[in-house]
Amino acid sequence: MAGRDDGNSAYGHKAFKRSKSHFADRITADGREGWPVAAGRYRLVVSRACPWASRAVISRRLLGLEDALSMAITDPIQDDRSWRFTLDPDDRDPVLGIRFLAEAYERREKDHPGGVSVPAIVDVTDGKLVTNDYQRITLDLATEWRALHRDGAPDLYPEPLRDEIDAVMAEVYEDVNNGVYRAGFAAEQDEYEGACAAVFRRLESLASRLAGQRYLVGDTITEADIRLFTTLVRFDAVYHGHFKCNRWKLAENEVLWAYARDLFQTPGFGDTVDFDHIKRHYHQVHTGINPTRIVPLGPDLSGWLSPHHRERLGGRPFGDGTPPGPVRPGEEVPPLGRP
Q1: What is the pTM of this model?
Q2: Catalytic residues, which ones?
Q3: DSSP E strand boundaries for 4-47
Q4: DSSP class of residue 84?
Q5: pLDDT for 187-234, tens place per residue?
């Protein structure tokens, strides 16, 4: 999720187009692109409000990379310089020593195009951005960072299933992950209607797929589930009202609501979700859509903890692995953000 050069008030006043990641370097096991995997060398910068960044937060936790890859959490409220470290003492990230994520971008390339987005990985040794490639970061965490995974870490991108996972993720990205934004930021009626219709067509297709299987691909959690979850968990809180994706609520779809609750209650998913950050970010940053910046009181979040009964479909959440342990101290979601 990126900051725009023309400010937050521009949202909703021109057609939405997802910008490509300008910094697409990869951190690999063999360091073939100049960035070798190394414990402690890099810092992952995220916003708990952002669905793209939340993928990386979930993956990092499921894989047990907390000790190898430190994490910075930005304020959910951006200004026109984008993501700020105002949740930290002295309004500075304690590791990178910067007030704005933009500083790491500028150290890498002055006057770079494409805005300042999360997730971002920064080289701690020189404070320069390494990558903001949100599509690739989690895949590399699952594959290139294997030597640093915890014992019992799940295989989130199993090689025999990659073609199917890629195909499912492409459809989810186009119509759901990105589709809610195309609907929410539409500047014309027909543009909105087309995007909104595509969102719900795809959700109905996914519900049919998930009616008879616990997870999207195979019988374990994969990257595909992570990518769908980060949109579903925000659906009723922000996309239904704020982005006008309101043909029905997630809680009104029996299959998808149970699937989302199943994942939410799985260690590594719901314990990374901060509904307070999510609601305040969308409603207070997108002033072109919500000029009053009023944050709604609802929806009631207690349903996220209700029984889902998806275990009846079988499946093994972590395959031959094990669930992650407790959230590490300092990374817990505050009570205000939890159901």
Answers
A1: 0.94
A2: 50, 181
A3: 42-46
A4: B
A5: 999 999 999 999 999 999 999 999 999 999 999 999 999 999 999 999
